[in-house]
Amino acid sequence: MSRRTSPVIPGFGLTLGYTLVYLSLLVLIPLGALFISAAQLSWAEFWAIISSARVLAALKLSFGTALLAALLNGAIGTLLAWSLVRYTFPGRKIIEAMIDLPFALPTAVAGIALTALYAPAGPIGQFATALGFKIAYTPLGITLALTFVTLPFVVRTLQPVLADIPREVEEAAACLGARPLQVFRYVLLPALLPAWLTGFALAFARGVGEYGSVIFIAGNMPMKTEILPLLIMVQLDQYNYAGATAIGVLMLVVSFVLLLLINMLQRRITRA
């Protein structure tokens, strides 16, 4: 029978109590109020709202672009984190500051800047138009906006883990005959994967709920470039609080399930 080890600093009951009160006031009670408000709808009314073609199109667009942006940042963010940790080069501090820029920049400002850049008359958008495709006012533009906003989550999650991996481990593997791909697969990947999944989950969660940077570049065309957060705002502007609540519950449940699956996968990988 195992015996629980007491921590050096006591106070488990007090800290747990503060944690539960804080969590309840900021998270559990507001989410509970959302479900209570949605419970005023009958199941037929709730299903009619969340199964409408417009809601399903917005759901597919929001989660699809957020997933794609998180995957892109998973690749780009890993390369950036690797370069910043393992190499010293001119302008490194400037790149470090630029990575954190989406944290400080208002999302509406980011949306306006991206729209001006990628619109058909913009510096980059006009070249895309000449090639026969559009960036702004399409799902591609939404994905770019989400990639810009969520990049710091992946980079800042991976940097500490990369910094804690001694270079001597890689050099020892190379001296024992491991090729670069084998070093990455058997030495670096097991240590990086849990942190990578954490960064991916944070980027995905932020992308699903992003509003300010997307509405300008999306064009907000129903059934084409309308995201779920915007659809909720449309329902509120029309005083359709029941519809907004139902869409909010749908968004909450789908996000929770996906994040739960990611966290379960991360725990299994960490244990393995």
Automatic annotation (TrEMBL):
Please give the Pfam families that the UniProt record associates with this protein: BPD_transp_1
Q: Which GO terms describe its molecular function?
A: ABC-type sulfate transporter activity
Topology in the lipid bilayer is annotated as: Multi-pass membrane protein
Q: Which GO terms describe its cellular component?
A: plasma membrane
Q: Which PROSITE patterns match?
A: ABC_TM1 (PS50928)
In this chain the ABC transmembrane type-1 domain maps to: 59-262
> Carries keyword Membrane?
yes
List where the protein spans the membrane.
20-43, 63-85, 97-119, 131-155, 186-205, 239-262
What PANTHER family does its record include? SULFATE TRANSPORT SYSTEM PERMEASE PROTEIN (PTHR30406), SULFATE TRANSPORT SYSTEM PERMEASE PROTEIN CYST (PTHR30406:SF8)
- Oligomer status and interactors: The complex is composed of two ATP-binding proteins (CysA), two transmembrane proteins (CysT and CysW) and a solute-binding protein (CysP).
Q: What is this protein called?
A: Sulfate transport system permease protein CysT
